[in-house]
Structure formats: structure tokens, C-alpha cells
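Format notes (please read before filing issues)

Several people have asked whether sequences and C-alpha cells are stored in separate files. They are not. Every record keeps both together, in the order shown below: the sequence lines, then the C-alpha cell lines. Line labels are part of the format and must not be stripped during preprocessing.
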Amino acid sequence: MIVAAVFLWLLAQGSELAALRAAFAQLSVLTMLLALGFAGAGHGVRIVRWWRLLRVLEPRLPLAACVRPFLCGFAINNVLPFRAGDAFRALAFQEELRSPAMRVVGTLVIERVVDVIVVSGIFFVGVLALPAGALPRSIVIAVGTLAAIGLIALLAAVVGLPWVESVLRRLAEGLSGARSAQWAARQGLHLAAALRLVRSDRGMLAFAGLSVVIWACEGAAFVTVAVALGVAEPLLGPWLALGVGTLSTTLPLAPGHIGTFDYLVAQGLVAYGASLATATAFAFAVHALWVPYTVAGLLLYWWVPGTGAPRRR
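Then the structure lines:
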């Protein structure tokens, strides 16, 4: 919470309350509902994308089985720090997903890496249209580093996985007397089985296509809010804000990324000439789009029967 407070304090510096109130007044219920619809479409495609990954290893898995784990994981990520929802998604829903935890973890790793690469591309498209120095150089370097790490991770999975799997199989077969080591080797094989999906050209092409659709939906939500606020550059500004704000979530420093996400989203819009008050209202508005889906995930966790949640009596 200290990190969140620091970034919120940084965001508040220079914002006048009257200007902030005037900016919020431009947002109508219809605008927010439209933006919420775009965000919901993005979540829907995310569920389909995740299901397609899991279905390769468990062909009988129905799409509906992925809805509750996804929304519950999303909700918990937004109320607890350190991406606890991802761990919960992997551990609590093994029966529903018909997959061991480490296989689920592998699919989440693929999602995160591909998203970092796609969103980094969005970010750099936005940066290229900016004059030099409009955005702090440290942010550009940080994003470039993240993108490089993502590309290296994908390359390493493609090139090195067969060797890793062969080592793990030999360990699993040869350590018959060491149960803990044998168990660890089996978990490694589950993880490798999921990561092996990146070696499928057709599968990854479809996955990348769905990823582009996801971020197009997210971008449409950002643009909708920006247009309602009268942002001077309603196209590239919101997309840059989407890129830098989303990439900030790779460092889960605060529950729901409160403060860090808002501050960097606002910086993306300010770089394109928006006033700090408008950029702050924009950041809070797009962050608020997470709330209904967070509430839905928490309700599904508590009141819908299933693995990992108390059953309704």
C-alpha cells in the first residue's frame, strides 16, 4: 500500500480539484457502459485464448470450464498483491480445468510473455510519433528491456525445451528412491508440456491473432474514454497510455496495481499534450472498468459451487 500511496501522491501533484471535477463531469454513463463493453469483449477473448491453450493438452475441456477460474483469478489479482490470483487459478481449479497446476502455470506464462511483446509493440508505435523527450527515457528503456526479455524467453522455449524435457524425464525415471525429487521432476514435465505449445506454428499464430484482438478491444475502451474527455489526440495518446499502463502491471507492487497503473497511464496521455487533470480523470476512469469484472469474479468465487470455493448451502 505504501507504493500505491506514493504513486497516487505523485499523480496528485499539480492536479487542481476543480479541473479534475470538470474532467469527470464529461464522462457519461453511456460512455462508461460502452467502454465497459469493449473491456468485457477483451475478457471474453482472453478466456477463449486460454481455453485454446489448455484444450491442446486436454481436448475434452469445455470452454465454460475456463470462465470461473479466469474471473476468480482476475478478481483476486485486483484485491491482493503479487499476482496471487494467478497462483490461485493454477492451484484451486485443477479439477475443473482437468490439468495439473504446473500445466496451468505454463499456459499463464505463455499468456504473459506474448502480451508483453504485443503491448510493447503498441507502446513503441505510440512513442515513435512523439517528439524527443516527451516521455521519460527511463520508461522507454524499461519497456524495451521487458520486450527483449519476452522475445528471449520465447526463443529459449523454442530452442531449449526438448533438451530440458529429456533431462526431466531421465530424472523422473532414475530417482525412484527420492520421492520429492521425482515429484519435482514430474512438475517440471507438466510445465514443459504447456510451454511446448510455443513450438506449434499454427497454434501460436492463432494465439497471437487472439492476442491482437484482445488488445484491440482494450484499446477501444481507452479511446472511448479519451474521446468523451475531449483529448486532443484521441488515437495515439490512449494507445500509448494503454501500453505503458499495462506494462506497469508486470511488476505487481500494489493490490489491483492501484497508483502505479494510474500514474503511468496518465503519463502516457500527458505526453500527447493532455492536461494533468484530464489525464488523471482518464486514468481513474479506465481503471474503474476493472471493478465490475472484479466484483463478478469475487461473487463467482464465493457463491457458485465449484472447486476452490465454499459451496452455497
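For reference, the curators noted about this record: The chain has one domain: 2-303. Confidence is low (pLDDT under 50) at residues 307-313.
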